[in-house]
Amino acid sequence: MSNFHPKNKHKSGYDLDALCKAYPDLLPFVFINKYDNKTIDFANPKAVKSLNTALLFKHYNIDFWEFPDTNLCPPIPGRVDYIHHIADLLKSSGINKNIRVLDIGTGASCIYPILGYAEYKWDFIVTDIDENSLQYAQNIINKNDLSEHVKLRYQKDASKILNGILNKNDNFSVSICNPPFYKSEADALEATIKKLKGLNKTEGDTVRNFSGTQNELWYKGGEKAFLHNYLYESSLFKNQCVWFTSLVSKKDLVKGMYNSLKKLGATHTKTINMGQGNKASRIVAWTYK
Prior knowledge:
By secondary structure, the chain is α/β, with parallel strands linked by helices. It contains 9 helices and 9 strands. The strands form 2 sheets. Strands 5-4-3-6-7-9-8 form a 7-stranded mixed beta sheet, sandwiched between helices. A two-stranded antiparallel ribbon has the order 1-2.
């Protein structure tokens, strides 16, 4: 669990005993492995969801976090890392108060708003193209008394990102986004099989350990198409957000993004590298101000 942000509460691993105490539903998933360590089966979606729920209950003052097992279950350590890096970005730009965040594609878990409010007391406008996901997100907001701080907006047109969501009076400190990584269901399934092999599971067992629905996992043209659409639309709202940001899973997409942003008139562009366990990821951030 090395390379996490210094403020990440999970950089030293998990205390499963403390987590089970905070969220007893985790207990049935904990076992002793052959190295005599307590762990869970990270290939089991229910175990993974239970662990992440326990992390929210124990560390982030969340009392309710429920959504269908078919929806994507976000890994809390990685998601909160994004939040901490965004806090550093805002601080380095002299943005320290009245922070308002646009979360693009919040999903049923509403994860970035609940972490962003818990850690930094930020206010959020969140969007999604899936009305069912927004209903679950609203329930999470209501049951954790966050309705004053987190407001939802439905994106009616799945091909649009900011268009149809932002109005001329909107002003944001930063936008955040975890884009769909895959071009199609087949593309997502291939990645799942590869991941499960890494967890020593058989090829016949193709359950995604973090689950996920079509809207959460794929977009026509994949991550590259989504990101370039986002870049273009950001140029249409350049005065309404100080920083636009996105997670970018494929390193080879960054150069093309920089080229496009130069043409679109971005004044500053930066890449923030994140190391999460064995997986490297990055945030690309840009501004027109």
